[in-house]
Amino acid sequence: MSDGISGLGRILAALLLxxxxxxxxxxxxxxxxxFRINHRDHMVIDLKINDQTEVTGVIDTAATYPMVDSAxxxxxxxIPPVAGAPMINVLGINGxxxxxxxxxxxxxxxxxxLNALNAAYNEDIEVPGSPLNILPASAIPGDVLEFDFERGxxxxxxxxxxxxxxxxxxxxxxxxxxxxxxxxxQMNGHKGLALIDTxxxxxxxxxxxxxxxxxxxxxDLTRHILGMTGGQDDVWVGKARKVxxxxxxxxxxxLLVSDPVIFDRLGLSDQPIMVLGLDFLSRFxxxxxxxxxxxxxxxxxxxxxxxxxNLSAPASRLDD
Length: 320
Hints:
This protein is mainly β.
């Protein structure tokens, strides 16, 4: 892993508080958590805090620390923070911020139950459709973490990833640094790293990767979608010729090009980085084989031609 990515350990080390997991009730050796895609294109789940309050939340592969909405916490009997309470520095897309830490007795989702965990206490005003209750995917136990977008189900189980012979399967290595999951990817034939982020609704690239891959700027689409003038350079829409992940590829996707603060904080601003959001990820069943450091992408065999798949559609919801 590059020096820039190893810098994650220096910046996010403060996030690694221990989460205590109960021995959860399991159905057939599996934990199963139903999810749905809401009107803001977020993948949301139903959570119950302290067996009292039902709230909406997310399981996020790019989150490194649990977070709870202050209103939901108070309704659930969570003791609010007082002056001098411990603080945690949480790094997000738009930068880092300190939050007070509170203790939660339990969080239940589907048939998974987490006991005695600490969480960042978020007092922001809630935006409808944007959940403020976040569970890192790494908090859910099991050898295999599976996101099945066809069934709307997150599962974990022990052993190896399970797939029927009727599915076409592609397995790639992944790297984990402080809970963030990266895979190798190619755009226009140029190699880069992609962060798998189930908390992001769209896929985007940083400007360093856009330059390296010679991404063509789409002026009309930039103005139409972002309401910008052609002279503004910090955020824009471009079109790639091909994005390839293993044997799967997307042709001519429209991609947002942006340099969020997080890339600079992690020392990645000069490296070719892509963030794979739900618009890309939801085309597959995704299985993280944790003991072996592999991630399996699969689709029904009838949707592919030979060993390659061309979705013949943008890999982003930034439609023409």
